[in-house]
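---------- Forwarded message ----------

FYI, see the Surface antigen record below. Original note from H. follows.
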Amino acid sequence: MSAFMSFRRALRASPALVLALGVLGGTAAGFAVLPEAHAASAPGPDAPLTLKVLKVEGNKQIPTADILAAFPYHVGDTVTRNKLDEGLQQVMALYKQKNVGAKFGEKERFVGKTIQFYLTIEEMAPSAAAAPAPFVLDQVNFVGNKKVPTAELEAATKLRPGAQVTTEAVVADTQAIQSVYKKHNIGVQIQPNATQPHQDNHVVLTYTMTEKTGDN
């Protein structure tokens, strides 16, 4: 007998006991099983019953059709309460596979030799997607600056290797280069370009200058 089944039978022996069972080996999603409500005259755990009603409620992230497909029994099948517990484990495995945390509640109703089985699912909010890694500057290149020394452009700009590259920082340095050219009364068009030579978050930033010829 599995520890899970022993736990379930203990719940049935003590209806007032309220516990939560964590699934071992789970992912970041959380799982818990809540004790079900059942009549005092409930049949034994291995007594054969006809499944008359099977309903799933509360699920939003995983479609009901997928849950019913994972549950191995259908309306009209001959089941036992232990078999329904095993079916619940299949639904739990589906949620674990989908990395969706949930709490599961059961309600069982008995009419003669039939059972009505209601599975209530309380899904946890999906985890926020991890923020992408920031771009890190490996190198800065200045290309096409024939009339203004590279050292002067480096002194005017602020981005340095190891710094985080943002759109705002690139725009600010582009404007700083523009100011240097304006100070020298030289017209220029500046094209910044960031590349990822290693296909990761490390970038090489290149400013390509097209200097105007003639008087400005």
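H. also flagged this: The chain is about 25% helix and 30% strand.
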